[in-house]
Write a structure and sequence with these properties.
The complex is a heterodimer. Chain A contains 23 helices and 16 strands. Chain A is α/β, with parallel strands linked by helices. Chain A folds into 4 domains: about 100 residues, Glutaredoxin (3-Layer(aba) Sandwich); about 210 residues, NADH-ubiquinone oxidoreductase 51kDa subunit (Rossmann fold); about 90 residues, Ubiquitin-like (UB roll); about 90 residues, de novo design (two linked rop proteins). Chain A has a 5-stranded mixed sheet with strand order 2-1-3-4-5, covered by helices on one side. Chain A has a 5-stranded mixed sheet with strand order 13-12-16-14-15. In chain A, strands 8-7-6-9 form a 4-stranded parallel sheet, with helices on both faces. The C terminus of chain A is likely disordered. Chain B is elongated, with a radius of gyration of 17 Å. The model of chain B has no long low-confidence stretch (mean pLDDT about 95).
Chain lengths: ~525, ~140
């Protein structure tokens, strides 16, 4: 009997995959035979709950299955791979959404059993760690990461190899490796998918890093809103310990590395690396002035590598196949692949991993399916709530860290949220600025006061109570925040507001200049 | 280590009471005020008892783009409470959250740890009614 696969990630469960699992399990036991394998999601969420059946080495899919459909599907030959309407989508890997993707970081997500070390090793996991422990010395590991051109996927895009080098060069009694799983940018979910669907890739990446920099202790900081990710990681850490994949003597090499899972407290700013370190130390997540950078003075004052979850999960394939192989993909100084997370008003949003260099328009139309029928695209926000708003005419921008930086924006963690004409630009910018005011850690005045004042002004404009000169004040606040905030939260917060004023002057003009016009 | 200790207290008791806070302050040898500062910083930590269940309406960018404010309005008018408040019967605490990481299936809500995607106003209110029924029964 063929194996049956079903995603149990948070998103799939949010639209009924849990109920489908119960129905499938009951029916498969009753009918005897097939094994039900629970995976993470492939990121084609519009197909979930997606049941896959392996027929002759090819996995065929049945999309949008509800629990009440399960018995009928089995009666009609799902286990033989029969094309049953309207569920059947044929070979899953050949589905239009997945066919053109280059899955490297997300190679296992939705494919292998989530949280099974055996499945992870069968899929090629562990090869990179063995290489790091037995074949390569620290220098060679770091050289491979440098050759790959990998830059941090959390948002700042700092070269990973250079960061590791700095920590490796530090002399200290203790060093730390920290995975940033705070993923606070609304509109992003790549880290969550990895933590739930392929937790061992993260652990392997961290262990390789620890070996390279000489650390023996690691932490994964998981945001409070991701309880399932935390549970999956906790289990994975226990299994890894039991199998010698982590612990005092990893794979018999004599190298020791342990990982602890810590929960966030629901504070956006804790995704900023120094605030995260403060939070890990148990304190209020207040940003630290930089320098010194965490690489030299990090957790508990010790040299610390702090990388995003997606960055760490990309390390094993790089070490397995070589830095040059990875660097062969991409464009300019953005090498390899990028995990873009499509969200908002799109027909088929989901996670798309493609080499850097494709255009935003291509990603939105080819993968996202464009905005739903009857709607018009208003603006696209890339890089989270602090990212630029781009109009339709700005979508030919290539997905490339530097192309975004060049226009004063950022690619960030790869979140792409599409707003349609049902969104009011004023309401949107007010909401974004109020969010920053709420999430500001309060350490520096430009962010603490600037965001509050800007949110108040935007609210008054929204209510039609704008005063002459409001836009000038907003511009002044933006100038102060950009130039003198301690971290990106304050420095980037004015970005969407300024771009909205530029793109939709009428929305702002009518209210703000009412007194002039009158 | 204050944050972790407070999280542990809350996971057992549902919130951090004044008594627990003072005990922890003595145990850790740090002022109670500092611990209060930690509690007030993190939206997940509570100094007052929450309702039996928690309903969170996501206001992340994607959900906002897909009409989260309509969901929030329905929940607020049905429950008759503002964000961060608990219904008078102590059944439900209503919270506004910023991103549940379910952005491809917006708009989303969470009831306790159970995230639900592609929500509509009627469906959400129907679910809240279930909690009222449990109370009535």
């Amino acid at each position: 009997m063929p194996d049956v696969f079903l995603s149990q990630d948070t998103s799939s469960r949010s639209i009924g995959a849990r109920e489908v699992e119960i129905a499938l399990r009951t029916e498969l036991v009753r009918r005897g035979g097939s094994r039900l394998v629970l995976t993470g999601s492939r990121g084609a969420f519009f197909l979930e709950p997606l049941v896959e059946v392996e027929i002759g080495g090819v996995r065929v899919g049945y999309a949008n299955v509800r629990s009440e459909d399960v018995a009928g599907l089995l009666d009609n030959g799902m286990l033989e791979g029969r094309p049953i309407e309207p569920f059947y989508i044929g070979a899953v890997a050949e589905a239009p959404f997945l066919r053109g993707q280059e899955r490297i970081t997300f190679r296992n997500c939705g494919v292998i059993e989530a949280g099974s070390l055996t499945a992870y090793l069968d899929a090629g996991g562990g090869v990179a760690l063995r290489r790091a422990l037995f074949e390569f010395d620290a220098l060679k590991i770091i050289a491979e990461v440098k050759h790959s051109g990998l830059r941090g996927r959390g948002g700042a895009a700092f070269p990973t190899g250079a960061k590791w080098q700095t920590v490796a060069d530090c002399v200290a009694d203790e060093k730390y490796v920290v995975a940033n799983g705070d993923e606070g940018d609304p509109g992003t979910y790549a880290d969550r998918m990895l933590m739930e669907g392929d937790p061992f890739a993260l652990l392997e990446g961290m262990a390789i890093c620890a070996r390279a920099v000489g650390a023996h202790k690691g932490f994964i900081y998981v945001r409070a809103e991701y309880p399932r990710a935390r549970t999956m990681l906790q289990k994975a850490v226990e299994i890894a310990h039991g199998a010698g994949f982590l612990g005092a003597d990893i794979l018999g090499s004599g190298f020791a590395f342990d990982v602890e899972i810590r929960s966030g407290g629901g504070a956006y700013v804790c995704g900023e690396e120094t605030a995260l370190l403060e939070s890990l130390e148990g304190k209020r997540g207040m940003v630290r002035p930089k320098p010194p950078y965490p690489a030299t003075v990090g957790l508990f004052g010790r040299p610390t590598v702090i990388n995003n979850v997606t960055t760490f999960a990309t390390i094993p394939p790089i070490l397995r196949q070589g830095g040059e192989w990875y660097a062969a993909m991409g464009t300019g100084r953005s090498r390899g692949t990028v995990a873009l997370q499509l969200a908002g008003s799109l027909r088929t949003p989901g996670l798309v991993e493609v080499p850097f260099g494709v255009t935003l328009r291509d990603v939105i139309n080819t993968y996202g399916g464009g905005v739903p029928v009857g709607r018009q695209l208003l603006a696209v926000q890339v890089g989270g709530p602090l990212g630029d708003l781009l109009p339709e005419s700005g979508l030919d921008l290539p997905i490339d860290f530097d192309a975004f930086t060049d226009i004063g924006s950022m690619l960030g963690h790869g979140g792409i949220v599409v707003y349609d004409d049902h969104t009011d630009p004023l309401q949107l910018t007010h909401r974004l600025m109020a969010y920053v005011a709420h999430e500001s850690c309060g350490k520096c005045a430009p962010c603490r006061l600037g965001s509050q004042r800007a949110a108040e002004i935007l609210e008054s404009i929204r209510k039609g109570e704008g005063q002459p000169g409001d836009l000038q004040i907003l511009d002044d606040i933006a100038f102060a925040m950009r130039g003198s905030s301690l971290c990106a939260l304050g420095a980037m917060a004015p970005t969407p507001v300024l771009s909205a004023i530029r793109l939709f002057p009428d929305s702002f003009g009518v209210g703000a200049l009412r007194h002039f016009a009158g | 280590m204050a944050l972790e200790a407070l999280q542990k207290i809350q996971s057992h008791a549902g919130y951090v009471s004044d008594a627990a806070l003072n005990q922890l302050a003595i145990a850790l040898g740090i002022p109670a005020g500092e611990l209060l500062g930690v509690i007030s910083f993190y939206s997940e930590l509570r100094a007052a008892p929450p309702g039996r269940h928690r309903v969170c309406v996501c206001h992340g960018d994607s959900c906002a783009a897909m009409g989260a404010h309509h969901i929030a309005e329905s929940v607020e008018s049905y429950l008759g409470v503002a964000p961060s408040q608990t219904t008078p019967d102590g059944q439900l605490t209503y919270e506004k959250v910023y991103c549940l990481g379910n952005c491809a299936l917006s708009p989303s809500i969470a009831i306790d740890e159970d995230v639900q995607g592609r929500c509509d106003c009627d469906g959400v209110v129907q679910q809240l009614k279930r909690f009222q029924k449990i109370k009535d029964a």
